[in-house]
Amino acid sequence: MSKEKYDFYERVFDVVRLVPHGRVTTYGAIAKFLGASKSSRLVGWAMNRSHGLIPTVPAHRVVNRVGLLSGKAHFSNPTEMQRLLESEGIQVKDDQIINFYDVFWDPALMDL
Q1: CB 27 within 8 Å of CB 108
Q2: What does DSSP assign to residue 94?
Q3: What CATH number is associated with residue 86?
């Protein structure tokens, strides 16, 4: 992996670690926050590489732009992402967060 991509991934991991318990964000919101608005897929690839990192990266809190669990296939089993979200009080039905706009967290709105 190139140093540039590694650095971007590290920045993504830092943002995802800030997503509050019981909230979710999107690949696009993270990309936009990092000044790379057309890099949503790269954020997704970073989430694929985040499993097992220390400190941990709560990748289950990152979903697609409409609240679908599009990254669920990259967890230890296909239901793990939903299980983790539900353990935080987030309701999911048919791989869709039910109250997506109520639990959405935008990193651009956080106080730095």
Answers
A1: no
A2: T
A3: 1.10.10.10
The β-bridge partners of 24 are 104
Question: pTM for this one?
Answer: 0.94
pLDDT (mean) for 55-68: 98
| C-alpha dist (Å) from residue 34 to 7, 9, 94 | 11, 11, 30
Q: Is 25 helix (H, G, I), strand (E, B) or coil?
A: strand
Residue corresponding to tokens 């967060």: 97
Query: For position 4, what pLDDT does the model report?
Result: 80
Q: Which amino acid is at 54?
A: I
Burial of 90 (0-12, 13-18, 19+ CB in 10 A): buried
Cross-strand partners of 68: 96
How many separate domains does the chain show? Answer: 1
The residues, any chain, with a CB within 8 Å of residue 6's CB and separated by 6 or more, are: none
Under 8 Å between Cβ of 46 and 6: no
